[in-house]
Design a protein that fits this description.
- The structure is a single chain.
- With 776 residues, the protein is mainly α.
- Helix content is 74%, strand content 0%.
- It contains 44 helices and no strands.
- Helix 35 packs across helix 36 (541-557) and helix 39 packs antiparallel against helix 40.
- The protein is elongated, with a radius of gyration of 43 Å.
Length: 776
């Protein structure tokens, strides 16, 4: 009876979806199947039969509509299930969106679940904190962040309570140590002292120490001294004053609280005087500290050899001979660089005397200008790092930073990076590796130790490859894949495609597709189609969607590049689709193959219609324009009906011209009303014809308003012409569709005649054959 839709609807209402689907796919076009199922799905959704509606949406490859349906119905589990299956790249974003929505609605438990699924349990904690649900906040933090995280939340809870209630809460959670630590870190020392004195007396000195360090940073040195002494850390007070060069205060604290540090203070003051050139006072202090060898070294470095020998004779007679020899070498000009002993000796002496802080400074005084080789520098500097790590932990960060910069300065980036790795500052290590162009180490360390930084490292690596000659070097070094990527990143597509061609068809298709995607981003659809047609197509879903988009764009606009129109219309589009069909046939993807074969045939017909116009074959042009109406899911519907109507007008087929142009006007009105499909249009004129009743509508008009008004006037003129029947000749229409289908089968089977009967059929066959032969 020609109404397969009724059979499909009957089986659908009975819930026999498999039978309905079989009939639909066998007897209806893909567009008709899609529109029918969409309409049925909307009805099922309105009736509350969401599972059945989902099934239909998925059948027509519209999972987004099913996802939105479940969202509106607040069936979030089903919504997440479909996002996981069909839009996995949006899963994280979907969980976050739902969590925020549920939080705003007060559904905290459900919101928590989605925050956690989005790997953002911290947001769930903050949600509970903001709503004073502290027990829940602690629970989530402990469950997902561990004990430390839960204690941090509990401390925040205690602070919000304050006073005795806060103290009781901390006791309940056993958080006295952590509470004291957080209080000192946040500068709340009164609270820290209160907690320590009430519950943890052994922590009181530690609080005094941290308070002293805080006061030192604030410049309140006298108050800081008192706190250092209360913490039983006089050495830190001495260091503080030494750093400030307040020698009187440093000596006072040393003499009263740490007598063993008196020589250190005297030597530090003496070194400061040496830097100012006051050697007389410096010498007196060195001698007072019982460190005359340091005074001798100071005189040597200042080339004051007479003073050095004088002091050595008085206090270090065993050094006089060596000193005389050094002086002689200096006078001969051999002393451009200091000896290793001269450079490292003072530092080693301090190290042996367990004066580690000063030893570090001495090792750091070794510079590349004074040393004979960089190896000596590296040895000295790494010794400074070792002493800091083992004996002066407060200086680790400072010393590592200083030494790393110096190592980079002499081109030893690996050693500099390893120092940062040794103190778990992996990001700094990665930066140094990158600065030294050690990309393998940088990328490896980023992936293993700082995954959150790895993406940025890869971006910078690609930027590095964009440098002049980088791609060539990569290829010559055997890194072909990275070389191809470099060419692509730099937009050197000809080189990329030439190299990809040498690697075989899969690589060539990959980079042709990437180049095509770049061209589409620039709206260069003709060039993209020509490129794919030349180099080959992929059968993967993402590239197929790209090809389909290009084809629809060019079927709507033509190929206005000079070579596209005229003798070879739509040649780029058809070449691309031909390659896609071949790839799908090889891949065995039957559904996609049928879709692209239909799209290719529609493109051939559109091109043949142009060729027919050039050859003056008006009836062939009319038949092809009518034939394209079966493919309004592929070509823009308004353009298809307009061109069919105008072709019938040119061929004096006024009955058909009236119907097709009247349909065109209905479509223009629907487009103006932003209708997405033809569902609201009257289909009575097309009953019992193969022309689809339901199809997508374009989002903008095919021609301008003035031209539309001319069409409207012409249709009105035909409606008043009594000779025009205002109805289709279904027999002629059927003959046209059968003739086109016979030609398609004949060309597909390689037969040399149309089988259409008559000269008109031969002309149509010839033009279709010549059109298809244009792409080989």
């Amino acid at each position: 009876a020609g109404t397969p839709q009724d059979a499909v609807e009957m089986y659908s209402k009975a819930g026999k979806w498999e039978v309905a689907h079989r009939i639909a796919t066998e007897h209806m076009t893909q567009a008709e199947v899609a529109m029918f199922y969409m309409t049925q799905a909307h009805r099922l959704e309105a009736a509350g039969k969401l599972r059945e509606a989902e099934r239909l949406y998925v059948m027509v490859h519209e999972p987004d509509l099913a996802i939105n349906m479940y969202k509106k119905a607040r069936r979030y589990d089903d919504m997440i299930r479909l996002v996981t299956s069909f839009r996995k790249d949006l899963l994280h974003e979907t969980h976050l969106h739902l969590a925020q929505q549920l939080e705003a609605e007060g559904s905290f438990k459900l919101a928590e679940r989605h925050f956690v699924e989005a790997t953002d349990w911290g947001a769930a904690v903050n949600m509970y904190r903001a709503n004073e649900l502290w027990d829940e906040a602690v629970r989530v933090a402990k469950q997902h962040g561990g004990v430390h995280a839960s204690k941090k939340v509990a401390y925040a809870w205690a602070v919000s309570l304050g006073g005795e209630a806060g103290a009781k809460l901390l006791a309940k959670f056993g958080l006295i140590d952590q509470a004291i630590e957080y209080a000192t870190e946040s500068g709340n020392f009164d609270h820290a002292f209160a907690l320590a004195q009430a519950s943890k007396q052994d922590k009181v000195p530690e609080v005094h120490l941290k308070y002293a360090m805080f006061l030192e940073d604030e410049g309140q040195f006298e108050s800081a001294e008192k706190e250092f002494l209360k913490a039983e850390k006089p050495k830190e007070a001495i260091d503080m004053y030494t750093h400030q060069q307040d020698w009187a205060a440093a000596l006072r604290v040393a003499e009263t609280s740490e007598p063993s540090s008196v020589p250190d203070v005297l030597c530090a003051q003496a070194k400061a005087l040496v830097e100012k050139g006051d050697f007389t006072k410096a010498e007196a202090l060195f001698v007072r500290a019982k460190k005359p060898e340091l005074a001798v070294e100071a005189y040597k470095h200042a080339a004051r050899w007479g003073d050095a020998q004088r002091l050595a004779k008085e206090f270090l007679p065993h050094k006089v001979a060596d000193l005389t020899a050094e002086h002689a070498a200096y006078m001969r000009g051999d002393g451009v660089h200091a000896s290793e002993e001269a450079l490292l000796g003072p530092a080693r002496s301090l190290e042996e005397g367990r004066d580690f802080a000063r030893a570090i400074d001495a090792y750091l005084k070794v510079t590349s200008e004074r040393a004979r080789s960089h190896d000596i520098c590296e040895e000295a500097w790494e010794k400074a790092v070792q002493l800091a790590m083992n004996h002066v932990p407060a200086r680790i960060a400072e010393v590592v930073n200083t030494v790393s910069k110096r190592l980079m300065g002499i081109g030893r980036h690996p050693q500099a990076a390893e120092l940062y790795e040794g103190i778990d500052q992996h990001r700094e290590a990665v930066d140094i590796y990158m600065a030294g162009n050690l990309w393998d180490q940088a990328r490896s360390l980023a992936r293993s130790a700082t995954p959150q930084y790895a993406k940025e490292v890869e971006v910078r690596y690609r930027e590095h490859l964009k440098g002049a000659g980088a791609a060539v070097d990569l290829v010559q070094g055997g890194n072909v894949s990275e070389g191809l990527e470099a060419y692509a990143q730099r937009g050197e597509w000809e080189r990329a495609l030439e190299l990809a061609k040498q690697q075989g068809p899969p690589m060539l298709v990959k980079y042709a597709t990437l180049h095509g995607a770049a061209l589409i981003g620039q709206h260069e659809f003709v060039r993209a189609a020509t490129l794919i047609g030349k180099y080959g197509a992929s059968a993967q879903p993402a590239p197929l969607a790209m090809y389909e988009r290009v084809a629809r764009e060019l079927l709507a606009s033509g190929e206005p590049d000079g070579g596209g129109m005229g003798k070879q219309p739509l040649v780029g589009t058809r070449s691309m689709l031909h390659k896609a069909v071949g790839a799908l046939r090889d891949a065995g993807d039957e559904p996609a193959l049928q879709r692209f074969e239909t799209l290719l045939w529609a493109s051939h017909m559109a091109a043949a219609k142009v060729l027919a116009a050039e050859r003056g074959a008006m009836d062939v042009q009319r038949k092809l324009a009518i034939g394209l109406l079966r493919h309004v899911a592929a070509v823009p519907a308004d353009m298809a009906f307009y061109e069919a109507g105008m072709a019938c007008k040119a061929a004096a087929d006024l009955n058909s011209a009236f119907v097709f142009l009247n349909r065109y006007l209905d479509i223009t009105e629907a487009v103006e009303e932003n209708e997405a499909t033809s569902a609201a249009l009257d289909n009575s004129d097309f009953a019992n014809t193969p022309i689809p009743h339901e199809f997508p509508l374009p989002d903008k008009q095919f021609i301008d308003g003035l031209q539309i008004e001319h069409v409207r006037d012409y249709v009105l003129e035909l409606s008043m012409n009594k000779a025009v029947q205002q109805a289709l000749d279904t027999a002629d229409l059927g003959h046209v569709f059968r003739e086109i289908e016979q030609i398609r089968e004949g060309l597909r089977g390689g037969r040399s005649s149309s089988g259409g009967g008559g000269g008109g059929g031969d002309a149509l066959y010839t033009i279709m054959r010549d059109t298809i032969s244009q792409i080989g």
